[in-house]
Amino acid sequence: MVQGVNTITGATSALDLDAQLMLRVREGDDDSFRLLLEKHRSPVIRFVYRMVQDQAISEELAQEVFLRVYRSRGTYEPTARFTTWLFRIATHLALNWLRDVRNERGQQRLDDEGDGEMPVREVADRRPTVEQRMVAQTRLQEVRDAIAMLPDKQRAAVLMHKYEEMEYAQISQVLECSESAVKSLLFRAYETLRARLAHMSARGLG
Amino acid sequence: MNWMDCPLQREETADLLLDYSARRLDAARAVLLERHMENCLECSKFRAEQAVVWDALDRWEPMPVSTDFNRRLWQRIDAAANAPWYRSLADSLRFANWKPVFPLAAAILAIAGGFLLDHPGKEVADPAESVQGVSVTQADQLEQTLDDIQMLRQLDTANAPSGGSSKM
């Protein structure tokens, strides 16, 4: 596990600190906002990036997340974990973006790919790869495609569970649904992924 | 929980296998689950397949964050602070979720429609048709009135001599 450790694993102990920092931001302390930005910037960008699978869009959306946090500073109340609030904003923005892109692409594209699948961005993140890395890149692309083909909420749940190491309770707060609904989302999502990625067991992951 | 039962057979315990695969199950329960999986083909298969997924997902590293991310963010914050109110409103609506607005708009339209049906306004008649209709009516009334006047005059004429003589 490489990602997300800083944000959520320490969330319980850092809850008060994040909330206190945000309360200071509310009082006009921009340095506290800078601290929050430094601490949570990467997890938010990572999460949004894996949701939309486009680096430029993910950074734009992540900026919108922090812009909204900053704009909301005047009315901030620490009623929930700071990270829950942060990821709720990030999730809403990512889901809305995915929905808008789907609407733009029209029904024909949806018919081709099936319900709940995200638009596959062909250009933005594909960098030229050297020959010896092509196999690994291909397999990585299979993973990305498998995630991309999950319905939006399942994808968000998996990304928060797997990469951000969130507990069911926090995911349920972010997605604004019950814990049992989250477990059901995750179970179905992993079931789909097990079927789609099963072949990687036989040939290895490179 | 009775570990003789297979976690996959019960909805409320199925997530234990996910927790185990995510290495989030506490040691005591992990030992019990491992003991169960030694004899449960289904759970054992689940563990193996989930491990493949887990390893595959671990390979997906995100792209590095742009070095000027913070600078661009602060530029946006400053621009937003100096922007006129309508610009701020437009920006805040840019990523808004409009989905809940549609039922509200439909409800408002339905209420407005119902109100208009219950309170219909005066019909606006075609002016030409209206003038023509009034003229016909007035002509009938005029004709009737003239007939009445003529009849009364005839009565007056007929009664006038006898009435005068009686007075005299």
Fold and architecture overview:
Helix content of chain A is 73%, strand content 0%. Chain A is mainly alpha-helical and 206 residues long. The longest helix of chain A has 32 residues, at 82-113. Mean pLDDT of chain A is 83; it is low at 1-14. Chain B has a domain at 7-58. In chain B, 71% of the residues lie in helices and 0% in strands. In chain B, helix 1 crosses helix 3 (41-58). The longest helix of chain B has 41 residues, at 127-167. Chain B is elongated, with a radius of gyration of 47 Å.
Blueprint of the fold:
The complex is a heterodimer of chains A (206) and B (168).
Chain A: H1 5-9, H2 11-26, H3 30-52, H4 55-71, H5 82-113, H6 134-148, H7 152-162, H8 168-175, H9 179-197, H10 199-203
Helix pairs in contact in A: 2-3, 3-4, 3-5, 4-5, 5-8, 6-9, 7-9, 8-9
Chain B: H1 14-21, H2 27-37, H3 41-58, H4 69-82, H5 85-94, H6 101-118, H7 127-167
Helix pairs in contact in B: 1-3
CATH topology of chain A: Rna Polymerase Sigma Factor, Chain: A
> Strand-residue fraction of chain B?
under 5%
CATH homology superfamily name of chain A: RNA polymerase sigma factor, region 2, helix turn helix motif
Give me the secondary-structure category of chain B: mainly alpha
Strand content of chain A: under 5%
Low-confidence stretches of chain A: 1-14
Features:
heterodimer; A: mainly alpha; Rna Polymerase Sigma Factor, Chain: A; disordered N terminus; B: 168 residues; mainly alpha; disordered C terminus
